[in-house]
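Trying the structure run again after the queue cleared.
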Amino acid sequence: MLPWLYLALGLAQAAHSVEEVLTGLWMNLPAVTGLLHDRLRFVPVLNWSAEGFAAANLVIVALLLGFSPFVFQRHAWALKIVRVVAVIEVLNAALHIIPAIVKGSYRSGCISAVFLLGTGLVILIKTGYSHELKSL
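Done. Tokens:
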């Protein structure tokens, strides 16, 4: 089951990337990351072109989906990476959903973020039980 969940997470990220690109998320990144940078100096201020942002998202999706054969082959080391990816995707989703809820309106990426959040949480729950780990 875990390999299919991971593949679903990769496909959800693909949909998420498309939503971000089509809704122009890169245009808001300097303002959002600038606010974060003012409070947390280690956060860089991101200023991307449309092409650069789309290319970065394409690379992310390619890496996630390209890694899936190792998960399907049930390599033990792949489980650790699946967990890390799931945590990153849950955080990514939260960073889209929370502002949408606070503002009470659509924010770029918030629709597909629901699928990232759900799939990521299911993966974390499934991999949190020792019996699931042994069945990998």
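Residues 11 and 65 are 8 Å apart (CA to CA). Worth checking whether this holds up in the mutant runs.
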